[in-house]
UniProtKB/TrEMBL annotation:
Example GO BP: methylation
Phylogenetic classification of the source organism: Bacteria, Bacillati, Bacillota, Clostridia, Eubacteriales
Protein keywords: Methyltransferase, S-adenosyl-L-methionine, Transferase
Domain O-methyltransferase C-terminal positions: 141-316
Official protein name in the record: Release factor glutamine methyltransferase
Length: 508
């Protein structure tokens, strides 16, 4: 969920080299899709000679290209034959339901303005705008955009409807900035009594009508500009969906959109906002924000907290960000708190978003069965640590067998990564435990790194409400536990090397 791309303990020259070569990956997949290579191979097998002859390409050059696709996981090579990988078969063949090729090539179309990032930083806004074009060129451009967004929408839609499993959703849905209508179609498929209105610019609605070709009797259309007053001429809606809308606009425009949504939502309805948010999938969110800067008039990626505050001012309740398994998240709001309680959410993922705000560098969810133990930990405490016998350190801590028994009371744990100073890290651990308890994990208990550093003096046999045992002091093999999850933990070799701290938050 968080940024696992940069590791301060391991990232060096190679990290910088990989950053600089990032566009190499993109160009390979752009070229493969433009060649329709995955379509050509299809469900069959092709030799290098067959592929080279099909594209009238140099055989040596093609082999180097194909073998790169193998390393990227998009093709499989067995002896003299190339096959589509499982990933390519599912998403990169045109007739597949979740085909992503149009979306990927749309990313290539955005690349030109990224070349002007330095100048954009100086100017403060996008430099190049779409020139006035004749109607047919503009229509084709809009078609490409709708197809690209449809690819993404289809892959996300089912993730969103899952939040409403078991909830009776009937009445009317307003899909704002509907594009292809993919999100509405997913809701209509899962909730048969719904009727949807697709709301978008007239140029978009014309193409969507053409694509759907009157195959959806429960869909109607409204042409308009969402930045103006919504002249819908109908009753209020039970669901208003804003998917990938907010990041295309400025703060003032977002406030207008939410005000209009508040005006048209039924008092017992849901406003569903699906978008990038800075708190979730941080690296992609930040890059998406830059993409908005170079490729839109005034779009930006917002903090979910800011959006929630706007909704609160309008009289709505919400449960904060609800992360999807991918790079986007939801905010589901309603004027009825009872209605919100019916929405499904992953309590652990929600807790992780809350804990990120405390300043942990990374959080990993694991089963308590994946926590590794070692008898060596206690030996190292006794023979090698100046804190042995002091405060809550061994032998005043939990022995290894009691710790193993304790972990059987819990099903999950969050591995929390931080850094010195010790006192600051331990305070964060206590705040994390408190947050977990307040979120309903009533058994929540934490183990942290190192000897307790909260007080200057500590009586070994005294009862302290803040003291927690260290992971290593309880016999936990911290290195092996971390390596089992991420593989990213190194011993400290030099005085100035980056040090990682880890805590364990136990959850029932």
């Amino acid at each position: 969920m968080l940024n696992s791309f940069y590791d301060p303990q391991k990232s060096g020259v190679q990290y910088l080299e990989d950053l600089a070569c990032g566009y190499w990956h993109s160009q390979v997949i752009f070229t493969a899709i433009e060649l329709e290579l995955f379509n050509y191979i299809g469900t069959e097998q092709k030799t290098l000679t067959e592929i080279s002859q099909h594209y009238t390409s140099n055989e040596n050059a093609m082999e180097r290209f194909l073998d790169t696709l193998v390393v990227l996981g998009l093709l499989v090579r067995y002896e003299a034959y190339y096959y589509n990988s499982q990933l390519a078969s599912a998403y990169l063949i045109k007739d597949k339901a979740l085909y992503q090729g149009d979306s990927i090539l749309w990313r290539k179309a955005l690349y030109a303005n990224w070349q002007d990032l330095k100048e954009t930083l100086i100017c403060g806004k996008r430099l190049h705008y779409i020139p006035n074009e004749d109607e047919e060129i503009l229509k084709q451009r809009t078609k490409k955009y709708i197809k690209a967004m449809d690819c993404i929408a289809k892959s996300k839609a089912k993730e969103i409807t899952k939040f409403f499993e078991g909830v009776h959703l009937g009445g009317t849905l307003l899909d704002v900035g509907a594009g292809s209508g993919a999100f509405s179609l997913a809701f209509l498929e899962d909730f048969s009594t719904l009727k949807a209105t697709l709301f978008d610019l007239s140029s978009v609605i014309a193409i969507t009508k053409e694509n759907l070709a009157d195959t959806q009797p429960n869909i109607s259309y409204h042409q308009g500009n969402i930045l103006e007053d919504w002249q819908l001429q109908t009753e209020k809606f039970h669901i208003i969906l804003l998917s990938n809308i907010l990041h295309a606009y400025s703060e003032k425009e977002v406030e207008h959109i939410l005000n209009q949504a508040a005006k048209w939502i039924d008092p017992k309805g849901f406003i569903i906002i699906h978008d990038f948010f800075l708190e979730h999938y941080s690296l992609k969110a930040r890059l998406s924000d830059l993409n908005m800067m170079v490729n839109t008039y005034n779009g930006k990626v917002f903090e979910g907290d800011w959006v929630c505050k706007l909704l609160k001012k309008l009289g709505f309740y919400d449960e904060g960000l609800l992360p999807l398994e991918s790079d986007t998240a939801l905010i589901i709001a309603s004027k009825s708190q009872e209605l919100l309680k019916k929405v499904h959410r992953d309590q652990k993922q929600y807790l992780m978003l809350k804990l990120k705000k405390l300043g942990f560098r990374n959080l990993q969810l694991l089963s308590t069965e994946d926590v590794a133990f070692t008898e060596v930990a206690a030996v190292k405490c006794q023979f090698g640590c100046q804190h042995y016998g002091l405060g809550k350190c061994p032998p005043n801590s939990l022995p290894i067998e009691k710790t193993k028994k304790l972990l059987k009371e819990f099903k999950y744990a969050l591995l929390l990564e931080g850094e010195p100073p010790t006192k600051g890290f331990q305070k964060k651990i206590l705040k994390a435990e408190k947050e977990a308890y307040q979120q309903g994990f009533y058994k929540a208990f934490s183990l942290w790194a190192g000897p307790c550093s909260l007080c200057s003096q500590c009586e070994p046999k005294s009862s302290c409400p803040q003291a927690r045992p260290s992971m290593e002091g309880c016999g936990i093999d911290v290195f092996q536990t971390v390596k089992n999850l991420t593989g990213n933990l190194e011993t400290v070799k030099n005085k100035n090397d980056y040090v990682k701290y880890f805590g364990l938050l136990l959850l029932e």
